[in-house]
């Protein structure tokens, strides 16, 4: 896995340096040519940080709409669908979306190519549950600062946003992908009409990576 991670960091760096910070995702999926081992975040199962939260919070989705931002190969979207949500899952990479459709041909999830910075107007304020997992951390700071209002805009009144990302203290460096986030920058969601319900800061058992898992909610009125 290490050579793939290093190649990914190098690819991201090249694209960021040439001023195309979102261009490397499609290149990576395209080059992987259907081999998930070439996609460092593709565990081919639901993210355990999400699964654990859904179970702990006893989340059910019947009659509710969910959206998965930067859905990758689709496992988290499928998990939400299994809970009864009507799920839209989107990714900027056409190859990733085609891969999801191939993996889950009978899925109830609507997989769609879209860029978070330019989503259909009908999605604004349209979702009871918004999942952002590992996508903000794949963007350099100035890009994710701009992304935060676009993530928040998808959450409907009384709806929830769950963010799962790498975490760091403000005085720790974030030089390569994945760029861990700070608690302070995640505070920006509270300028977008959301309030923080829980903020969890922990070390993941299997990888010992430091994670933040943050649940925000939009007020009902
Ligand atoms: C690090 S991967 C994580 C994928 C998935 N969430 C997971 O946990 O396996 C980040 C994903 O976000 C997608 N992405 C990056 N920028 C995006 C944007 N502006 N709009 C939509 N998707 C984006 C990438 O193509 C990639 O699939």
UniProtKB/TrEMBL annotation:
InterPro entries annotated for this entry?
A: SAM-dependent_MTases_sf (IPR029063), TPMT (IPR008854)
Q: Does the keyword S-adenosyl-L-methionine apply?
A: yes
A Pfam family the protein falls into: TPMT
UniProt keywords, alphabetically? Methyltransferase, S-adenosyl-L-methionine, Transferase
Q: Which one of the record's GO molecular function terms can you name?
A: S-adenosylmethionine-dependent methyltransferase activity
Record GO biological process: methylation
Q: What is this protein called?
A: Class I SAM-dependent methyltransferase
Q: Which organism is it from?
A: Phormidesmis priestleyi ULC007
Classification lineage: Bacteria, Bacillati, Cyanobacteriota, Cyanophyceae, Leptolyngbyales
């Amino acid at each position: 896995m290490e050579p793939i991670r290093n190649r990914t960091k190098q690819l991201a760096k090249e694209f960021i340096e040439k001023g195309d910070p979102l261009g490397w995702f499609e290149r990576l999926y395209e080059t992987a040519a259907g081999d998930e081992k070439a996609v460092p975040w593709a565990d081919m199962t639901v993210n355990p940080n999400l699964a654990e939260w859904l179970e702990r919070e006893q989340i059910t989705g019947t009659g509710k709409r969910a959206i998965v931002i930067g859905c990758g190969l689709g496992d988290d979207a499928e998990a939400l669908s299994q809970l009864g949500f009507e799920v839209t899952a989107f990714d900027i990479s056409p190859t990733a979306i085609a891969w999801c459709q191939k993996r889950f041909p009978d899925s109830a999830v609507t997989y769609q190519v879209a860029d978070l910075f330019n989503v259909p107007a009908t999605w604004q304020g349209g979702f009871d549950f918004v999942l952002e997992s590992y996508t903000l951390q794949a963007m350099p700071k100035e890009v994710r600062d701009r992304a935060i209002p676009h993530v928040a805009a998808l959450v409907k009144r009384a709806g929830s946003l769950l963010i799962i990302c790498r975490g760091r203290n403000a005085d720790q460096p974030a030089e390569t992908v994945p760029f861990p986030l700070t608690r302070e920058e995640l505070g920006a969601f509270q300028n977008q009409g959301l309030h923080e319900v829980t903020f969890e800061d922990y070390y993941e058992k299997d990888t010992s990576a430091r994670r933040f898992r943050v649940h925000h909610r939009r007020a009902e009125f």
